[in-house]
Amino acid sequence: MFDYGSNMMNGLQQRDTVGVADIAAAAERIAGEAVRTPLLASALLDERVGGRVLLKCECLQRTGSFKFRGAYNALASLDPDARGRGVVAVSSGNHAQGVAEAARIFGVPATVVMPEDAPAIKRDRARRSGATVIGYDRSREDRDAVAAAVLAQSGGVLIHPYNDPRVIAGQGTAGREIAAQCAGMGIVPDAVLVPCGGGGLGAGIGVAIRDAYPEATLTLVEPEAFDDYGRSLRAGQPIANTATSGSICDALLAPSPGTIGFALNVRNAARAVTVSDEAAMAAVAFAFRELKLSVEPGGAVGLAALLSGGVDGRDRTTVVVLSGGNVDEAVLREALSRPAI
Amino acid sequence: MFDYGSNMMNGLQQRDTVGVADIAAAAERIAGEAVRTPLLASALLDERVGGRVLLKCECLQRTGSFKFRGAYNALASLDPDARGRGVVAVSSGNHAQGVAEAARIFGVPATVVMPEDAPAIKRDRARRSGATVIGYDRSREDRDAVAAAVLAQSGGVLIHPYNDPRVIAGQGTAGREIAAQCAGMGIVPDAVLVPCGGGGLGAGIGVAIRDAYPEATLTLVEPEAFDDYGRSLRAGQPIANTATSGSICDALLAPSPGTIGFALNVRNAARAVTVSDEAAMAAVAFAFRELKLSVEPGGAVGLAALLSGGVDGRDRTTVVVLSGGNVDEAVLREALSRPAI
């Protein structure tokens, strides 16, 4: 297994943390290629929640999720010689698309290792960006072993989906934008809800938000059966999930918190809550019907936490990150077949 | 039939035109209630079109379409005594929702006259905002007669969907935002594509855009079988459609150009193009799959014109207004059942 924690990938010793300067540098790198996604309000949602809600729409990001930010920043930060050997990603799908698209922009080959049960849309889009897709069986094969074989064969550079300071800094640009957008509206956020798999998005956003708004709370939102982050925060050290599959929130099934992001999330006093798959699907339907946005289940868990009452949004301003929109059409149909909430 | 052209509604003589000052005043009125919708870019769309495309996402507007802008501005402009008697709207659905929601905000009753074949989502949403919905048969009943009876009975104020300077000024705020957003990005738009039914949105946007960017061209986009605006522009005077129903673009079936907007569109040198229902549905599917946005067929005709090649977007900057997102789920399923374009 890779020693992601020591972060000695490709012989480059890096700092094992991320600060606001790293996020500012990442923002400059991605500016020409990533979308500055809108921070949207919905009067209907405000009424439902009983407070002000602002939606950071990363479903409208290039490749349909926030992952493009970190992937592009990582590739842009690589030494051109190293980058030229090509990049490798291990991902449930959104990071794969982000890396594939970033590699296409830089004109270098990408190989992505994805579970065979990943949504078809994610596999197809990674291929469309020119990546070679290699599948593995999530329940029987060790993805790190598959990735190691690919790395050995290709000689490429591994872009980890979350335990890489360049990736976390890239994801943090979403938080930097949230802070600037709140300031532009004259709004001080009380709380930020971030969908959480390996914890990189929450870590990056937390650094940026708490620099601008030190009183804002950071809440990571996980699927019920994948509450490794909540358990890890309570234990004070990273603890792995027991399950490897079995939630509709395919984007949030990382095996355990990344160590770099975990330290940042601890420092930022993050707390974690869980939502059921039912609540996530209801939020997908709500987003489609009421917000006119395509949001995938894993991207909708923050909204689900608010709508289901798991997080109390009354009489306060809550920023909710809608982290991805790559929902298979069958899953959307399934979500829409349920009664409206 | 109402003499919409003379605009002597409710005993108030109004100027029969709209200027940038009216739009600026409307922008102030709606600022606390309407969404400043994003002007989004998509790298994928740019590549497909071979030029730069910016999407003004009115599907993300309150009530799911631009109509809230004009409806709210009209209600806010009314004398409080007149407004207190309640408002009446005749609409295929989006204007009805806009008026219903604006009336709810002002705490006054709303009655909306809608064709019985309007999408269920639009009828339901008007009711949800508290409006009384009265249906009529588009092919057999005269909607103006139905509306006249409602007006006589209720004593309320008619809010015309497009032939009202207050409504046009409200829709023009979308154009004012586009101009400011382009300026903020340092971009000069070459062309603006606007879905067209009665022509009020195009008229309002045209006034605002050509004030800021006099060289930008204005193109109104209509369904093939409802090309009254194109024929009217060529004839130099308003000509009615022959059909009253039969396009999937339910939002764009106004019987003929409104006189106030027509004069403005002539002055702004608007041209008109048509798209097929097939192309509109393909654009709905493209918007869902690639842009992660729910766009209704009538709201997608500008995008359809670009994607189908009816409007050439190569080597230029084109702003496309996605004017509404209230698509019935069955229509979306139908759109998604076709091969991807």
Which bin fits the share of residues in helices of chain A? 40-55%
Average pLDDT figure of chain A:
93
Could you name the CATH topology of the largest domain in chain A?
Answer: Rossmann fold
CATH domain class name of the largest domain in chain A? Alpha Beta
How is the topology of this model organized?
Two copies of one chain form a homodimer.
Chain A (H helix, E strand, L loop, with lengths): L19 H11 L8 E3 L1 H7 L2 E6 L9 H11 L2 H5 L2 E4 L3 H13 L3 E6 L4 H9 L3 E5 L6 H12 L2 E2 L6 H21 L5 E5 L4 H13 L4 E7 L4 H8 L23 H9 L3 E5 L1 H15 L9 H7 L9 E6 L6 H8 L5
Helix pairs in contact in A: 1-3, 1-8, 3-5, 3-8, 5-6, 8-9, 9-11, 12-13, 12-14
Features:
Rossmann fold; alpha/beta; four-stranded parallel β-sheet; homodimer; 341 residues; disordered N terminus; six-stranded mixed β-sheet
Structure description:
The structure is a homodimer of 341-residue chains. Chain A is an alpha/beta fold. In chain A, helix 5 (94-106) links the parallel strand 3 and strand 4 (110-115). Chain A has 2 domains: 25-65 and 164-337, Rossmann fold (3-Layer(aba) Sandwich); 68-158, Rossmann fold (3-Layer(aba) Sandwich), CATH 3.40.50.1100. Chain A is built from 14 helices and 10 strands. Chain A has a 6-stranded mixed beta sheet with strand order 1-2-10-7-8-9, with helices on both faces. Chain A has a 4-stranded parallel beta sheet with strand order 5-4-3-6, with helices on both faces. At the A-B interface, helix 12 and helix 14 of A face helix 12 and helix 14 of B.
